[in-house]
């Protein structure tokens, strides 16, 4: 059965609480867009495309509940700053000619269905880059739970595995929220894809020892020149990969492109709470007065990315993702 992070059934939205995985599989019912915004903020649901789908369903709930749609859109847009899919999905719904409940729900379902289709296409294109027997290193979770299904970077890994390529995955733990250890390991186990979880700091020595053949990561926002915001630690992997002559790939749907930004300098980077660093499972492990800086994302320059895989195909640098405005003026 297809692994999903949310369900719309009989006019109700529920979400798999990703904070409890892999040990606790709990579905939470959500009654209104306020609860959806809170779920995005608290990372009940996470991963750029999944956040976009959640926001779309948040607006479907707002329309069904007769809420003020502009206010609902504003509240949902304020939930997290970095993943552009959130704003892309909200803008797409708010641009509908009519914001009646039926039309908004139909569009939200389309956002979800199209994301799933885009991930399958990303997997098809991306797996061509993966050679049989490769050791593929990845970070964060970019699988079915982070999207509408299949996944982006993990979707490429899934497709390569499904094509019988006998790959092995090095899955970075991904401090501090451990999306790699909790979620990628959970998805890889369910799929039966051979893998080892590693501490983030083990990547360099694995590369030096010749035990990594490529790195593949997802994206939260890609600027027109290919600069890519993704989970903190992605940039270090790209630098390491270039140093060791290992190909570094990004996989993301075109809904993650922010062509208004010429480069990654203006991508807003979310700063998250100190407890993600100072506490583990609610237990304080740092001194009381410990000062913390906790950026959730970093920006990898497009020049370090050997290929960006979208549903359209495999793009290689130098990147120039044109905006609709640029295209219409050609
Ligand atoms: O903070 P998160 O867990 O929402 O961050 C997720 C990531 O950085 C993913 O790698 C990215 O969104 C790509 S998801 C397919």
From TrEMBL:
Chain positions of site Transition state stabilizer: 140
Pathway: Amino-acid biosynthesis; L-methionine biosynthesis via salvage pathway; L-methionine from S-methyl-5-thio-alpha-D-ribose 1-phosphate: step 1/6
Biological process per Gene Ontology, one example term: L-methionine salvage from methylthioadenosine
Pfam families xrefs: IF-2B
Gene Ontology terms for molecular function: S-methyl-5-thioribose-1-phosphate isomerase activity; translation initiation factor activity
Entry keywords, A to Z: Amino-acid biosynthesis, Initiation factor, Isomerase, Methionine biosynthesis, Protein biosynthesis
EC number: 5.3.1.23
Catalytic activity: 5-(methylsulfanyl)-alpha-D-ribose 1-phosphate = 5-(methylsulfanyl)-D-ribulose 1-phosphate
HAMAP family reported in the protein's UniProt record: Salvage_MtnA
PANTHER family per record: METHYLTHIORIBOSE-1-PHOSPHATE ISOMERASE
Primary role: Catalyzes the interconversion of methylthioribose-1-phosphate (MTR-1-P) into methylthioribulose-1-phosphate (MTRu-1-P).
Name of this chain's protein: Methylthioribose-1-phosphate isomerase
Source organism: Fimbriimonas ginsengisoli Gsoil 348
Lineage: Bacteria, Bacillati, Armatimonadota, Fimbriimonadia, Fimbriimonadales
UniProt gene name: mtnA
């Amino acid at each position: 059965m297809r692994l999903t992070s949310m369900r719309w059934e009989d006019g109700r939205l529920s979400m798999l609480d990703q904070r409890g995985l892999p040990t606790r599989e709990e579905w939470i019912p959500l009654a209104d867009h306020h609860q959806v915004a809170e779920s995005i903020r608290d990372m009940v649901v996470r991963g750029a495309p999944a956040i976009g789908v959640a926001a779309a369903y948040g607006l479907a709930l707002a329309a069904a509940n007769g809420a003020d749609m502009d206010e609902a859109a504003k509240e949902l847009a304020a939930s997290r700053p970095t993943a552009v899919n959130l704003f892309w999905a909200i803008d797409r719904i708010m641009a509908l000619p009519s914001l009646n409940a039926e039309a908004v729900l139909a569009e939200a379902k389309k956002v979800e269905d199209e994301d799933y289709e885009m991930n399958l296409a990303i997997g098809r294109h991306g797996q061509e880059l993966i050679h049989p027997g490769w050791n593929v290193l990845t970070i964060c979770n970019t699988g079915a739970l982070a999207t509408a299904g299949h996944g982006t970077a993990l979707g490429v890994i899934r497709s390569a595995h499904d094509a019988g390529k006998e790959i092995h995955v090095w899955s970075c733990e991904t401090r501090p929220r451990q999306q790699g250890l909790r979620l990628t390991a959970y998805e890889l186990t369910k799929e039966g894809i051979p893998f080892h979880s590693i501490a983030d700091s083990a990547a360099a020595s694995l590369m030096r020892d010749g035990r990594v053949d490529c790195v593949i990561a997802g994206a939260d926002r890609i600027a027109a020149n290919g600069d890519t915001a993704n989970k903190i630690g992605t940039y270090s992997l790209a630098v390491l990969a270039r140093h060791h002559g290992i190909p570094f790939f990004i996989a993301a749907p075109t809904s993650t492109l922010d062509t208004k930004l010429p480069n990654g300098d203006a991508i807003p980077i979310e700063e998250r709470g100190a407890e993600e660093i100072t506490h583990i499972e609610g237990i304080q492990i740092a001194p009381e007065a410990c000062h913390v800086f906790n950026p959730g994302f970093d920006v990898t320059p497009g020049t370090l990315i050997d290929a960006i895989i979208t549903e359209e195909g495999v793009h290689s640098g130098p990147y120039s993702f044109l905006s609709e405005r640029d295209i219409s003026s050609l």
